[in-house]
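Figure 6 in text form: structure in, sequence out.
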């Protein structure tokens, strides 16, 4: 049983194929179990379903562990407008992946891990729901949560969820943003010990191969200058850390 934010209790059946990353969500109206109203196209594994049928919004919350970044992109093709389709009317509504609460500012994460936590929530265009005490949050964590460059990535009007282009110890994620042809890039180093690594890829590795781009580092706002697809972009990433930049076409 799930509760609609405006519609009240709504019965819901989940049919999950975790290997294929497919979840069918059948909501049932007055006709009961034999009268499905909605079905998802493909959503990945889920642990929580929150429906607002009147507003046409569905949030799906995936389980979080440090190394589960690789599972979340199963839903990326259906995140945003058109994620669900009505079996009765053919109309679509919005599917939003809810990665659960943000605990930046609590105990347990290093400063680097807090950046990964919040940075990836922004790459995934996930709801930003805080689970901390804003009366006593430290200044460093507060600055991270109100970082305008990160919030712009999360709230980008395209509403597109980021996708991985490389997995493993060094994960690389890209998210299309506005203006057209721009991307936000996140590079995560998942190894939990040792020293930092240096990452060196040409800009075209990130799918940025159409002319010149202006790059900006996201966390501190450093201007990285103008580059083309052959430019080698070099930076360091700490263990369990992240590096993020945005690339916008130069007209």
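Output sequence:
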């Amino acid at each position: 049983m799930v509760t609609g934010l405006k519609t009240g209790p709504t019965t819901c059946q989940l049919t999950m194929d975790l290997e294929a990353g497919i979840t069918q969500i059948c909501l049932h109206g007055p006709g009961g179990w034999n009268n499905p109203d909605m079905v998802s196209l493909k959503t990945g594994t889920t642990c929580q379903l929150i429906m607002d049928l009147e507003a046409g919004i569905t949030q799906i919350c995936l389980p979080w562990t440090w190394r589960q970044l690789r599972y979340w992109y199963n839903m990326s093709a259906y995140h945003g407008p058109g994620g669900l389709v009505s079996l009765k009317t053919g109309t679509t509504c919005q599917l939003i992946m809810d990665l659960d609460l943000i605990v930046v500012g609590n105990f347990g994460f290093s400063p680097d891990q807090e950046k990964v936590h919040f940075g990836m929530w922004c790459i995934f265009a996930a709801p930003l729901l805080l689970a901390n005490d804003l009366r006593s949050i430290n200044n460093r964590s507060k600055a991270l949560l109100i970082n305008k460059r990160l919030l712009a990535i999360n709230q980008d009007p395209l509403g597109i969820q980021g996708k991985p282009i490389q997995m493993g110890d060094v994960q690389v994620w890209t998210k299309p943003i506005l203006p057209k042809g721009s991307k936000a890039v996140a590079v995560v180093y998942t190894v939990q010990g040792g020293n930092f690594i240096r990452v060196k890829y040409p800009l075209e590795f990130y799918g940025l191969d159409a002319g010149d781009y202006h790059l900006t580092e996201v966390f501190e706002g450093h201007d990285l200058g103008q580059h083309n697809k052959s430019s080698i972009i070099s930076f360091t990433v700490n263990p369990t850390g992240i590096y993020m930049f945005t690339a916008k076409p130069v007209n």
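Caption detail: Helices lie at 69-72, 111-123, 139-145, 148-154.
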